[in-house]
Amino acid sequence: NMKCSIFNAELRNDHRNLTSEIEKSLQVLHSARSSSSLAVPSEKS
């Protein structure tokens, strides 16, 4: 039972780390996309 709770805690910690990594990647992607769209003139105009 103790081993199970430790395992759950590690899983929760891994999930938190993974979520923060995903959020970081999304922020980088978003900033790269917005900066590139600012640098490149719009093709619609």
List keywords for this structure.
single chain, 1 helix, 45 residues, mainly alpha
Unreliable spans: none
* Major sheet: none
Number of helices: 1
Structural class: mainly alpha
Count of β-strands: 0
**Radius of gyration of CA atoms, rounded to a whole number:** 19 Å
Oligomer: single chain
User: Globular, elongated, flat, extended or rod-shaped: what is the shape?
Assistant: rod-shaped
Overall mean pLDDT stands at 83
**What portion of residues belong to β-strands?**
under 5%
Helical content class: over 70%
Q: What is the ordering of alpha helices and beta strands?
A: H
Distance between the termini: 65 Å
Fold and architecture overview:
- Helices cover about 85% and strands about 0% of the residues.
- It is an all-alpha fold and about 45 residues long.
- It has one helix at about 1-40.
- It has a domain at about 1-30.
- The protein contains one helix and no strands.
- The radius of gyration is 19 Å and the shape is rod-shaped.
